[in-house]
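Entry 12.
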Amino acid sequence: MEDTKKRNDEELVKCYIAGDESAFEVLVKKYRKVIYQKIYFIIRDRVVAEDILQETFFKIIRSIRSGVYDEQGRFLSWAVTVARNQCLDYKRKLKGPKLLPYELMPSQCFFQHSTTMKCRISESQLQQQIQFIVNQLPEVQRTVIKYRHFEEMSFKEISLAMDTNVSTTTRRMRYGLKNLYKIIKDREIDFR
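Predicted 3D structure (tokens):
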């Protein structure tokens, strides 16, 4: 065990793959707190964060054992990415059908349905226009706008999901909204 503590992350992973369980224990002790803090920052619930932390380490174990982990990468950044993805999965499950792939944005994401056929047709046309316009944006701007307005994520959550900082995220949002306005103006689209 003492010899294991002196090894770097790559060596610890190799030792764990070779059957040394204590090597993985060293990795857990070394990074547990950092990974937990990242999870808690996204989730804001201590009990859920603990559960996600355990799920994260289970997923890491499965990935290492199945050969998915690439030793050339940095263990901590990979583990944090696994944790972040676990958090996003948890949030998707909480929000239910509201979190959808970006190309699939059904009408319930935009408006409540009207009762008359004429109103429903108008809403359907409006939804198609909105979807068309949003899909004209560059991918990063489109993603930020969809995260912010359709998934109701904070800028901090978006920056974590997109692996950027908050100022980059807000800048992409600002440019995205400017581009939306320009597209609407250029195409002379009337939403009234």
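Annotation: The mean pLDDT is 79. The radius of gyration is 22 Å.
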